[in-house]
Design goal:
The complex is a heterodimer.
Chain A: E1 2-5, E2 10-17, E3 22-30, H1 35-50, E4 59-63, H2 69-86, E5 89-93, H3 95-103, E6 109-114, E7 120-127, E8 130-131, E9 136-138, H4 140-146, E10 155-156, H5 158-162, H6 180-192
Parallel strand pairs in A: 1-4, 4-5, 6-10
Antiparallel strand pairs in A: 1-2, 2-3, 6-7, 7-8, 7-9
Helix pairs in contact in A: 1-2, 3-6
Chain B: E1 6-11, E2 16-23, E3 26-34, H1 36-40, H2 47-69, E4 78-84, H3 88-105, E5 109-113, H4 114-120, H5 122-126, E6 133-138, E7 143-150, E8 154-160, H6 166-176, H7 183-191, H8 218-233, H9 240-266, E9 270-274, H10 281-294, E10 297-299, H11 303-306, H12 310-322, H13 360-363
Parallel strand pairs in B: 1-4, 4-5, 6-9, 9-10
Antiparallel strand pairs in B: 1-2, 2-3, 6-7, 7-8
Helix pairs in contact in B: 2-3, 4-12, 6-7, 6-8, 6-9, 7-9, 8-9, 9-10
The chains are: A alpha/beta, B alpha/beta.
The complex binds zinc ion.
Zinc ion (ZN) is lined by residues 114, 118, 139, 141, 275, 308 of chain B.
Catalytic activity (chain B): L-threonylcarbamoyladenylate + adenosine(37) in tRNA = N(6)-L-threonylcarbamoyladenosine(37) in tRNA + AMP + H(+)
Keywords (chain B): Acyltransferase, Cytoplasm, Iron, Metal-binding, Transferase, tRNA processing
GO molecular function, one term (chain B): tRNA N(6)-L-threonylcarbamoyladenine synthase activity
Chain lengths: 222, 372
């Protein structure tokens, strides 16, 4: 199983042996502006380290976001193309679920990642495996206004670290970035339980910025 | 000929998701998914909408092209992709998919230049490009005169627009006339019923002291808008067909005049015209007339190959394979402003198989160093 995620500033790739429940190799690079350049070399490094070929992979797992779009699409386009070229299965997993899973928390908590424009992508969880709200994108202050208890919940993810004044329960000792190894283990667990994973389609959560132009502007000087 | 390179090409620089497959100079498949209708109500291409549409269409379009060509992906000799110039987010979808396909199949990757691809596509229509070739590229995004002694390694910019692209001027005039987006085809249609000499619109940058090969369409666009407004303000009806014909005449007059002049000055006896505006019927007719008069052989691909498509990328990729050019690296970036002087993006650490000596004679052609 090959897992990859480009929905956060991290480019993260892991090769996971689901049967033996072990991670064979991982690669992790953080550079929010170079997802497109870093992903393939990371995949190549992971396969090289494990001494495996891409054709041996049966399942591709990809983080479907939410995340900044340009980077997010790199992972999805890559995963889909791998799967199409080699006839592999491709599964989508919500990026926030991967971060939640990696936290290992057993109590209710919140995951928040940086959505830029002073907003976060976020969701609430009952425990590391169980999301209880749909992923959403909001300014932290509005989340707090709508859910005043949010400041008391443990919080993980780079969005929580960034807006600590709202996410006061931030757990800095837990990984703030996505880990493809956690994403792979979560996907393997869900597949073993016979659960259906998501299609490899992006969770954008925002509409594209586009405005219908105002009426035609007159050019004749008055 | 089965030993000619079989290459798949991916193009996502603007609003068309294009995947083409060629064998040497032979077109096997040309699959296109367009998001143009989604952009129409915004009066222009919205980058984020285009990028989203590319991701949706990417893999299905690749599969459609492979099926259409009747070839197996494992038989490909290479995967080519537009590395730039174009919309950054849109390019990145194609580049990511191309890398993944090439890597998965164990095939060489060629990141190529969108403009050089527009020129090279003519090999699918009229066979090997003459060396050198003079190219006039006109579309909503570009208006350039390029001299290409070797389409895989040496493309020199002679001139380009200093403001609007030719296709943009068509879009803007169509908007003033309330004819919708895109403007090119609809203006062409109206112009057929109009008188091209009805209104004397200005020919930009054609004075004796103006840059010989540069274009300017912004002044023309404003002149057309003012003329229409004057009619409307006077309460008169706007003669749409005459405006369309006269505007189109002004654009095509300047384009063909400068292209023919460039051929003469550089001693080139072939002109190719590419890009979406090359589908314009008046441009084709006028170029034919003027080239014939000047003893220049005109090459214009069929309209579907002039607009953005994957076949043109595959055509240039096949030429890269045929000439043993260095492949691109797995960290190939999408470069929204890739210079036209770089027909492809070779691996910086790669070993060059470039046998440039065999093409030395054409590099000497104009005895000018156009890079400086
Ligand atoms: Zn183009």
């Amino acid at each position: 199983m090959l897992a990859l995620d480009t929905a956060t500033p991290a480019v993260t790739v892991a090769l996971h042996d689901a049967e033996g429940d072990r991670t064979l190799a991982t690669a992790h690079k953080v550079d929010a502006r170079r997802h497109g350049e870093l992903l393939l070399p990371c995949v190549d490094a992971v396969l090289g380290e494990a001494g495996r070929k891409l054709a041996e992979v049966t399942d591709v797992v990809v983080g479907v976001g939410p995340g900044p779009y340009t980077g997010l699409r790199v992972g999805l386009a890559t995963a889909e193309a791998f799967a199409a070229a080699l006839g592999q299965r491709v599964h989508g997993v919500c990026t926030l679920d991967g971060i939640a899973y990696a936290s290992g928390l057993t109590e209710p908590f919140v995951v928040a990642t940086d959505a830029r424009r002073k907003e976060v992508y976020w969701a609430r969880y009952a425990d590391a495996r169980t999301r209880v709200t749909d992923p959403a994108v909001d300014p932290p202050a509005e989340i707090e206004a709508a859910e005043p208890q949010i400041g008391r919940l443990p919080a993980v993810g780079a969005g929580a670290v960034l807006y600590e004044s709202v996410f006061r329960g931030v757990r800095r000792e837990l990984p703030a970035d996505q880990s493809a190894a956690a994403l792979a283990r979560l996907a393997a667990e869900r597949l073993a339980r016979g659960e259906e994973l998501l299609p490899p389609r992006p969770l954008y959560l925002r509409r594209p910025d586009a405005r219908v132009p105002a009426g035609y502007k007159v050019v004749t000087p008055r | 000929m089965a030993d000619e390179p079989l290459v798949l090409g991916i193009e996502t620089s603007c609003d068309e998701t294009g995947v083409g497959i060629v064998r040497g100079h032979t077109l096997l498949a040309d699959a296109v998914a367009s998001s143009v209708d989604t952009h129409a109500r915004f009066g222009g291409v919205v980058p984020e909408i285009a990028s989203r549409a590319h991701l949706e269409a990417m893999v299905p379009t690749i599969e459609r092209a492979l099926k259409e060509a009747g070839v197996a992906a494992f038989d490909l000799d290479g995967v080519a992709v537009t590395a730039g110039p174009g919309l950054a987010g849109a390019l990145l979808v194609g580049v990511s998919a191309a890398k993944a396909y090439a890597y998965a199949l164990g095939k060489p990757l060629y990141g190529v230049n969108h403009l050089a691809s527009h020129i090279c596509v003519d090999q699918l229509e009229h066979g090997a490009l003459p060396e050198p070739t003079m190219a006039l590229l006109v579309s909503g995004g570009h208006s350039s005169l390029l001299l290409a002694p070797d389409i895989t390694a040496d493309v020199r910019p002679l001139g380009s627009t200093i403001d609007d692209a030719a296709g943009e001027a068509f879009d803007k005039v169509a908007r003033v006339l309330n004819l919708g987006f895109p403007g090119g085809p609809v203006i062409d249609r109206y112009a057929k019923q109009g008188d091209p000499d009805a209104i004397a619109f200005p020919r930009g940058l054609t004075g004796p002291r103006d840059a010989a090969y540069d274009f300017s369409f912004s002044g023309l666009k404003t002149a057309v808008a003012r003329w229409i407004e004057a009619k409307r303000n006077a309460g008169e009806e706007v003669p749409v067909a005459d405006v369309a014909a006269s505007f189109q005449e002004a654009v095509t007059d300047v384009l063909t005049r400068k292209a023919v002049r460039a051929c003469r000055d550089e001693g080139v006896d072939h002109l190719m015209i590419g890009g979406g505006v090359a589908a314009n019927s008046r441009l084709r007719a006028m170029a034919e007339e003027r080239c014939a008069a000047a003893g220049i052989t005109l090459r214009v691909p069929r309209p579907k190959l002039c607009t953005d498509n994957g076949a043109m990328v595959a055509a240039l990729g096949a030429e890269m394979v045929a000439r043993n050019r260095t492949t691109s690296a797995w960290d190939l970036p999408a470069d929204s402003s890739l210079p036209v002087t770089e027909p492809h993006v070779p691996d910086p650490s790669g070993h060059s198989h470039d046998d440039s000596r065999s093409h030395d004679h054409v590099h000497e052609l104009s005895r000018k160093n156009l890079y400086t």
